[in-house]
Amino acid sequence: MANIFDYIDWRGDLSFSQVPCCDIDNLILSRLSYMPFDDIVPAETSISIPLCKAAKLLLESNIPTNVIFCKSDLKLLSALISSDRFKNIELSNYINRIDLDLQKQFSAITLSICPDLYYISYRGTDNSIIGWKEDFNMSFTSVVPAQYDAVEYLEAAADRLHGQLILGGHSKGGNLAVYASVFCRPDIQSRIINVYNNDGPGFRQAVLNTKQYQSVSDKIRTFIPQSSVVGLLLEHEETYTIIHSTQVGLLQHDIYSWQVMRDHFLSIDEISNGSRFVNKTLKDWLENMDDFQRKQFIDTLFSVLQSTHAKTLDDLLQHWYSNTRAMIRCIRKLDPETQNTLSQAFRLLWISAKSNFSSFLPKLTSLRKK
Asked: What does pTM read for this prediction?
């Protein structure tokens, strides 16, 4: 089976001027926003650096492994350096912001892929705990700080660029790309030719009901793996393409497991039954809590996680024993009402899972027999 590395080997000798940007190119370009290009890619739109040079500087910097989100990212950079199609893409306007007070994690980069065509790549949730907190906040509020930043970033970049725009991202980055395309100025929206949401969450219904969303919905292209969880969170109105992944469960969120066939994804007709079960369970769970209850639960849960003083998920896992003890101490110190909030939310999750398991059990059993 083939993945994006095989695509780079196959198509890598042809420039974007020779062969237009396709869905696989989008996935590769969306991944570039995950690269820690701090102090390498200029923060200005007017100053740029070729991808081959930026990638070489990053690979030679001996950057700590915990800063790299995925080991395959380093392999991707090495492949792009030697690819005629990608190596001369100009990178600019790199922004990486984490604000604990605002509960915000936002990063984006602008890619000039050929004359008068730009790809704006939004980073998904990184390894920071505050980034995951912002994702959870989407369950009770229609707008999170990173979404405001996504619109601001697009409008500021577009005002300095001349030509057409493609927006895209993976995970939360896909959500940010869609949000920015929906709520940017009309003159910028008219320059957008495609918006890519690569296994990113949807929106609350209030956003989908807006005229702004309807005006751009035909430009949105959404891709999810067959056992998607993240990509089916919240609501989508656009149709989506289901991609075959070589991973299982949540690990299918990894783009390097997505299968391709020349210049398009290897698609299948339906998501897996396991994906339906997980997403139905989560949606039923959220529907059993109002926005205030969701906020209470999420704030409490993350206050417990932050009692460990860990900044990233790696920090939590590396010192799991001491962190577990710290979280238990924090829970014990919570007032009875807050403790009840936690236990009630987990009880509702158990009830939702148990109810849906009964409904999906016959289908899961038949799948195993096949």
From this structure: 0.86
